[in-house]
Amino acid sequence: MTRLKKGSALAACAIAMVSGFEGLRTYAYRDPVGIPTICFGETRGVKMGDRATTAECKDMLAVRLVEFETGMTRCLKNPAAVPDKPYAAFLSFTYNVGIGAFCKSTLVRKVNAGDLRGGCMELLKWDKAAGIRLPGLTKRRQAENAFCLRGL
Questions:
Q1: Which residues form a coiled coil (predicted)?
Q2: Which of 22, 42, 69, 144 is catalytic?
């Protein structure tokens, strides 16, 4: 069951967080590690030369956030017990690193053990792409971490 109900405060928060970090590009570009990307960080099926409207990008993000939320919650023992701010921070993180990486992370192990603060702190460790620390990822993780901790 999704907590991202259309028009809800949590959905608005998650969309604002992800779109703010990802930025909007209506044409395909290569991300810092060379993956074709469009809209708000979308990589699925993207080819260089692709274009999308802002409305298409917003719709794509809303649909994909629900997909990522579904994958994220499958890996959490009790997702309903995670307060909204950490939940949104973890969803932003999952959208960025992928469901598989989220599910295998120490962050999930800590949250599932009841250590939400420890889970929030794990976000700070994920500021590299292809082994290279990226300043933008460092800023994103610091913001996700701060937002996460504010919700405890």
A1: none
A2: 22
Report all structural domains of the chain as residue ranges with CATH numbers, in order of start: 9-150 (1.10.530.40)
> Mind listing the pLDDT tens digit of every residue in the chain (152 residues)?
689 987 789 999 999 999 999 999 999 999 988 999 999 999 999 999 999 999 999 999 999 999 999 999 999 999 999 999 999 999 999 999 999 999 999 999 999 999 999 999 999 999 998 899 999 999 999 999 999 999 99
Residue in 31, 54, 53, 32 with CA at minimum distance from that of residue 43 = 31
Which is catalytic among the residues 31, 56, 59, 67? 31
